[in-house]
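Reading a protein record of the kind used here takes only a little practice. Each token is a code from a learned vocabulary of local backbone shapes. With that in mind, consider the following protein and its fold in token form:
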Amino acid sequence: MKWEKLLSAKRWGSEDKYIEDQAEARSEFQRDYDRLIFSSPFRRLQNKTQVFPLPGSVFVHNRLTHSLEVASVGRSLGRIFYNKLKKEEPGIDDRLPLISEIGNIVAAACLAHDLGNPAFGHSGEAAISHYFTHDKGLIYKDKVTGAQWADLTHFEGNANAFRILTHPYAGKGYGSFALTYSTLASIAKYPCEAAAGHDKSKIYTKKYGFFQSEQQGFQRIAMDLGLEKVQDSPLVYKRHPIVYLVEAADDICYNIIDLEDAHRLKILSYNDVESLLLRLCNDPNLPARLADIDDDDAKISLLRAKAINILITTCSELFYREQESILNGDFNYSLIDEIDEPYRSVMKDIEHISIKKIYNYSSVVQIEVAGYKVMGGLLEEFIPAYLNNNSHYTRKLVELIPKQFITKNTDEYSRIQTVLDFISGMTDLYAVELFRKIKGISFPSIS
């Protein structure tokens, strides 16, 4: 793969209108960032769970604040890489006019990386998949193709993000977000279809990155950017190199920030967090600085900032060092898993304590279980209602689905996707509220 092709400002749905105007105040990739910031799906991330239940009096991160922080880290990763390239080859901007935009491409892709996650995160994904593999949802197996069934039984937030960004929803126009090809390719951590998305031995097939409904669109982007195709059936490509930086930004943020949130919620003690982050910070003067600060939250904030800075520097250096292997599609690791020691061991220790004490904490498990029930309950109501729509009750349910999601297609797969578009886009709070109302647990207020 070559940077000359991988970096493109061609826009989805507006390919024939592509004109690069360097005189504009914003670059094409900054436009991508701004379009995402002002979009409704991005705003809805404010009420989607990151790890902990949405806060009461104590602030913890939600999907929106997480995405903003990931974008900030991602921009730095891309900028450091560009600065290293420019130092090695001062005239690189003449050879690669868009290479200076890597930081902006990474930042935009980072904003969008969680856009397709349903309410309640991975629990929501599991609930959707479970519906189609048990009892009530199994009746649709013979009404779709095998490849389409793989989409439904292994619902994937990564693929859903690509759909949100490219699907021509009713009234939204064909181009939808009209993001650049490079930004769209940079969110595809797993550029393959569902039937291939279970091979854990390859970094690009651990999950999958596009539904059958978006496969041709992804192929068009991949061909234009020169992504390396691995096989045709099931379809698999190797990653766009910038994906590694987007992934690293996400890995850095959730590993470090989850510790900070756990401390605020008193799940981890100050000493628990300090002992981990001090090993990352690699600053002999830091203990003395911490001793001058009285507030534990302020101490954690300083440790967090130092740790993230170290990880940004380390990951960007690794990306630069492994650039040839990454461009060849042969680098089979995430950057965070291959950083130098002692940082790699510290990150493994953080992962271990996070699984043991954070992700299995009672309130985290409770919200996952509740979310599983809510999402499953909504699917049980809306999918049969939309596909059959043969009673007064089902007609009323269908009226609750926004018109933008309604499809003119008559095949079962497209009609099921209509309901999944609606339900997967819900916030945690709206999903719970709607579930309670249609089950008669609570009644709507008249405002």
